[in-house]
Each structure stands twice: as structure tokens, then as C-alpha cells.
Inverse folding.
């Protein structure tokens, strides 16, 4: 079944916001057995929205609109769709009660604009939006489904997961899609492709393979559409067995798991606790680690020592080393790691120090120079990297690299923990 | 002049990558006086690309393709456009020399696939790509311009800035577009719309207004197209003056600036330094603050005290209060804030303690219960919130709310810093 996503809103077309919704929707729809045929971004204009819908209905079985359904005047999707489907806007008691309830919980008062959100097209099925005032509307026409939902990412995600995808799966018979993700570490994409070329060429036609590279990791995703779940599971499992023979230790995990969750799982299995001492990452490693539910079981805390003063006073970095070698140096990052272990009493510490940029680079240590150190009670391992990216990417890449270093360490020599 | 952006590549339609190119292009094109009429993402399929081009040429004066021009088999944009424009692919000595030179600098060898990049459509103007092997091609047809460029972000950006936008400005006469963004705090979107309804209705036709709500902030964006830059600037400035009369202190800033940068600017102007003591936010506030270039001038560091042990040992939270009131309590979050001030020697500290979820909630303190405290040498301000969201959103919302609390404090009573 083919889906077209239409995002509505001037803010996308003037570049004020990046459309992250569509990628999320594409992933979730894919998992549920639907294919995206096109993503279209249009203005808050009746003519443009209507035209986009007409064209989309020629290409797709399902058209999903996001955005343009706020209470203010610039949002006209509801009016436009009502006109297109020849529907009247009618007051919906249930939607009104939902909005009242929502406002009450947020200690906010009802006003005319919010009240107008309870006006819905009489030819649409209204889907409850528990976390926003804009109702979600579902239209059907000649066997096709058209849904209008909020553009606010968390409202959209809630609606898609809880209501829209399950309902689409009821209306359309879609094959079961099985995805199996293998996380591979240590090969650039092209080198991995050469390494597994024979295996890949031998895959049966109904198994498709995608390479998803991301910062030193390549996710291999095997996908199959099937009516026979068990047989296909078996087939995939068999192919993964062979892949394991080829790649061995380069396989980090046989599921689509974030590195921070993998770290957490390994620490839990060893019964060990972690802390971080962050300079250039500014708390980003701690943030990634604590994005995992239950991380308090193995993550004790972090010192973000952005100033040299805190590197000295809290982590015990020697003044002489800061002066002689600079904050971005092996000496300093190792003292940050060992100092963090001692200060916070953990089994392993990650420390980072680098020049995130855009300022602060020198000829000797240009922007993107980063030291990462991992320290346990028995050993300290440190490496320098040169990322040469922008500030945000230097921070993200440092975090990713530090997590990978730790995973490698735990896999190869867990005895040092 | 209207532009349509067409991004080509399966990776966007399966959600593997987020299309960040289009937003960047939209901003730069807007600045240069061009409007984006639509953004369309299509598959690497000849029929789909051709159809999208034909439709785009009905809407737009300029069609900009990104992506789909790599050397591998799945990339077919060059072949498709050659066919569409009835052009032959011919070997271009200059492009070949550029590619040779580029590979030499990267210590890489030429191979058949890379060599094939030097084949270009004979009806296109070829634009030099100094940082990639894929040539950029520029077609003209019936007064319209069609350009195909790489999808690799840094190659696309180089081509747009150095070549494509300057050339478009020579071919087309364009007006200037002025955007003015006002950050408003304290009004839900609908209440704001009612508050400024009269002002909004009185806006001249050539000034358009958009509401962009995001976590307790609404961005108001005024846009105008003009041939007379100064007169329009004056007009906008005049309307903003009146808006300031209506909204007063609710206006946080008169530009599109992230809260963390606003915090940084205010701290800099007061000459004050900040630290954070984070539990439920796990380093996310420190991460947001340090995402701003130059933040080391006012951000000293952070203690992420995820465990109670660290709350006690590092921040000096009293054991008795942890036992009597729990970690998520006014008593504890205030001691975290004052403890952080003392430990790290700053002028202001933000502390957070809450239940991010999905586990850890109780009847008395359900998931989403969060305490935020801001402490200076003179005063400590604390508030409890109930966010009721998922883990990621509870963390993000806590961070956003803490930054807003701090901004309010600094605006209303900077003397307490």
C-alpha cells in the first residue's frame, strides 16, 4: 500500500523548521507494511493543498497530512479539506469535552479560538487527540484514506502510533514486514559491502538488504514482506547465521538498539557502574546514557567540567599539566577520567576534552581535535581524534565514539572492569 | 520568482535520513529573494523524477534537484534529465581533469565508476564542483531554469552559495524578502491570537503573519516581500513597536534565537556565570547551554547527580531530607541548587529533580513530576511541574522550562544575580 505524506506549513518552505516528522513517519509506516511513494511540502494555501491532495490520490492509496490545523487564522487545512470533501463543519460535543479536560489539566482557560477546534467536518471520522486541542480527522473516498493530523511532533507521533497506523492496518490488508537489523562496527560502508558481497548476492529475492551508515556504525537491515511469518523468520535467522560467520566480532548487536542502551545492558550484566567527566561534550554523553529508561541502575552521574578551574578543583587535574599540555591533551583527559572515578566512586569513567568549535582552534590543535579517555580501576585507555566537523556534529561524534570505545573495551577485555 | 526543490533518493522516503538540505536551501533562497513553492521528495525512479519535474515546471520558474547523481547504479538523475532534455551524454575533459585533481588530493585512485562522472549532458551548462566528483548541471527551457546538484550537504551548500544563487540572481529579477521573528512567552497560541487580534487584523496586506508554537514559547513571524527594503523595514519596525505596546514583557526577544543563546547573552551582559545540578535532566541542560559557541565564557560546568549518593556527597543534600521528602522534592532540589553554587563557585545555578519515566512514578508523584530550582547568592526560587509526557519529552520540557524560568528571573529581577 502506497502512502503520500503531505506536510503543510509556510515554516517548512521558508526553512524555519526542518521537517523531521516525515522521516519518523516513513520509518514507522515501513515497519507496519506501508511504502512511502512521495513526501510533499506545501504552503498554507487552499489551492495548493487541494492540488497536492488531488495529485497524491493519483499516486497513493493513503494520504497523510501533517500540520496546518492550529486554532489561528494561518491554519486552513480543516476548512480546505471540508470544502474538498463537501462537508460541513459541525460542533462536536466529545471533542469539546476533550479540549475542556486538556485545558483544565494545564490550568488554562477556554477561549473562542480553542472552542473553534471542536468544529469538525461532518464527513470525517474524528480521532481523539489526548495531548493537543486539534482533532485528528479521517476521511475515506473511493477506497482511499485521507488523514489530517497535527504537525507538532509529539502530537503527531502519539496519533500515528496509537490510532492511525493501527486503523490503517485494519482497513488495508498489508503483508507482514519483518525487519532484522544487524549493527556492524569497524567497516566503512563500501568496505563492508565488498566483504559481504557474496553473501548479499546469494540472498533470496524476497529478502532485501539496506545499508544504514551512521558514525562508525553500519546498520544492515534485512527486510521481508511475507504472509508466512514463521518460515520467513527461519529464513532470516539462517542468513544471519552465515553473516555471523563472515563478520564475527564486527557484529555489535543483532537488533536495532541505540549504543547507550547497549552500554547499559553490558554494564548491567557485569554489575558495574559508570560516570562521565565531560568537557567538550558538555553533558551530552550523560544525556545519551540517561535517555535510557532504568539507567539509574548503572549510571551514577557526571561532572561537566567546562572550565579549567573545575577540572582542577573537582576532578583533580594538575595545574601544571593544564599549563604545559593544554586542556585538550592526553594528560588532562586521563586525569579527568581517573579523577571522576575517584570523586564519584564508579567502576568505569568516560572523559572527553576537545575543541568543538567554531572558535578555539589553533594550528597545532584545530577545531575537531578531541581526546577521549576511558578509565577503570585497573587501566586507562585514551585516544585522540580529529573530526573536522561543525560544533554540533563534533559533539555528537565525540559522544558516539566514546560509547563505541567503551563497548569495544567491555567486549574485548571485560576483565579490566 | 518561485522555486521548487526536488530531493531524489530512496533514503529519504524510507526515513533513513532527515532532509535537512531543503530547509537550508529555503533560508538561503529566501534571503536572495526567491520563494519556495513546494518541496518534493521522490524515489530514484525515472518515471517518478520526470513526472515530478513536469509538475514542478507548472508551478515554479526554477526547479532545483538535489541528490541522485552519485557514481553507483542506483543513481539515475543524470540519465533521466538527459533523456528529458533530449541531450546526449558526452565526455567532458574539464570535468575529468577536476575529478583527477580531487582524487589526487585525497590519495584515491580513479576507477571506471568515478570516470563515468565526467560524462555530462551536451545541452547543459556544467558548473564546476570543487569538492566532489559529481558535476552540477544547469538546464534552461522556455525561460525556466532546472539545476541538478549533489545531495551531500556540504557539496550542495558550496554549489548553492558560490554558483547557483548568484547565477539565478543574474537570470531573474527578484524582490527582497524580509522576515522578522518575535519570541513570545506566557501565552498559549490561541490566547495570544486573541490578545493581538486587532493588531493582526490591522496588518497591511503585504505583511503576512505566522504563529509557530513550541513548548511555552510562540514565535510570531512577520514576512514581507519588497522592492523597497528601507520602507518595508520601517513599516515592520512600526508594527513591532505597536506589538510591543500590547505584549510588553511577554516579548522575550525580537529575533529568532534559541533560549540557550538568549540565556548566554543575558549572562554575558550581566557578567555572571552559571552552573547546573541535574538529576532527571541527566545533563541535558548542560548540553543545551554548551551547544552555543562561546558558552565557556559564562558556563562553568555541571554536576549530574543521578544517584542519591552523589546528591549527598557532591552537592551536600542532607540524607534526612532525601529520606523524609524523597529526591523529587522542594527540599532536595533547593539543596542541589545551593550546593552546586557553592561547589562550583558560580553566580546562578539551575537544579532539576523529577521522574522522567516510564518507571519510578508513584500515586503521590506520578511520572512527569518535576522540581526545578534556580538559586543565586541572594535567593532561591523553586517550582513544581507536572508534565505527564514520555521520558524524552519530560526531559526536554524540563530543560525548556528551566531555561525559561531563568530568563524570567533575569528579566524581572536581575538585581538578585
Amino acid at each position: 500500500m502506497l502512502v503520500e505524506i503531505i506536510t503543510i506549513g509556510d515554516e517548512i518552505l521558508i526553512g524555519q523548521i526542518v521537517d523531521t516528522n516525515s522521516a519518523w513517519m516513513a520509518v514507522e509506516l515501513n515497519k507496519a507494511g506501508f511504502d512511502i511513494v512521495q513526501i510533499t511540502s506545501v504552503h498554507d494555501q487552499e489551492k495548493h493543498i487541494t492540488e497536492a491532495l488531488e495529485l497524491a490520490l493519483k499516486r497513493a492509496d493513503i494520504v497523510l497530512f501533517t500540520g496546518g490545523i492550529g486554532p489561528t487564522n494561518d491554519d486552513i487545512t480543516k476548512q480546505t479539506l471540508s470544502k474538498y470533501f463537501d462537508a460541513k463543519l459541525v460542533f462536536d460535543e466529545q471533542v469539546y469535552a476533550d479540549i475542556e479536560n486538556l485545558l483544565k489539566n494545564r490550568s488554562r482557560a477556554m477561549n473562542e479560538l480553542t472552542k473553534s477546534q471542536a468544529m469538525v467536518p461532518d464527513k470525517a471520522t474524528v480521532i481523539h487527540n489526548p495531548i493537543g486541542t486539534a482533532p485528528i480527522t479521517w476521511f475515506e473516498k473511493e477506497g482511499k484514506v485521507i488523514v489530517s493530523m497535527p504537525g507538532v511532533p509529539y502530537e503527531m507521533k502519539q496519533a500515528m502510533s496509537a490510532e492511525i497506523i493501527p486503523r490503517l492496518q485494519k482497513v488495508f490488508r498489508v503483508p507482514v514486514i519483518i525487519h532484522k537489523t544487524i549493527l556492524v562496527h569497524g567497516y566503512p560502508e563500501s568496505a563492508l559491502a565488498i566483504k559481504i558481497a557474496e553473501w548479499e548476492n546469494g540472498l533470496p529475492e524476497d529478502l532485501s538488504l539496506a545499508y544504514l551508515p551512521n558514525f562508525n556504525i553500519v546498520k544492515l537491515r534485512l527486510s521481508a514482506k511475507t504472509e508466512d511469518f514463521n518460515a520467513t523468520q527461519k529464513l532470516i535467522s539462517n542468513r544471519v547465521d552465515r553473516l555471523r560467520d563472515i563478520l564475527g566480532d564486527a557484529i555489535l548487536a543483532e537488533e536495532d538498539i541505540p549504543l547507550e542502551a547497549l552500554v547499559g545492558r553490558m554494564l548491567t550484566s557485569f554489575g558495574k557502574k559508570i560516570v562521565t567527566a565531560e568537557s567538550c561534550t558538555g553533558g551530552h554523553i550523560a544525556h545519551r546514557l540517561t535517555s535510557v529508561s532504568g539507567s539509574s541502575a548503572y549510571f551514577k552521574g557526571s561532572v561537566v567540567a567546562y572550565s579549567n578551574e573545575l577540572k582542577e578543583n573537582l576532578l583533580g587535574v594538575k595545574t601544571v599539566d593544564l599549563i604545559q599540555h593544554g586542556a585538550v591533551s592526553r594528560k588532562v583527559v586521563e586525569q579527568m577520567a581517573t579523577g571522576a572515578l575517584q570523586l564519584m566512586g564508579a567502576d568505569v569513567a568516560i572523559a572527553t576534552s576537545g575543541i568543538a568549535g567554531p572558535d578555539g582552534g589553533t594550528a597545532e590543535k584545530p577545531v575537531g581535535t578531541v581526546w577521549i579517555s576511558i578509565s577503570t580501576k585497573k587501566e586507562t585507555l585514551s585516544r585522540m581524534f580529529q573530526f573536522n566537523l561543525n560544533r554540533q556534529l563534533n559533539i555528537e561524534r565525540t559522544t558516539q565514539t566514546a560509547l563505541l570505545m567503551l563497548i569495544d573495551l567491555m567486549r574485548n577485555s571485560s576483565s579490566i572492569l
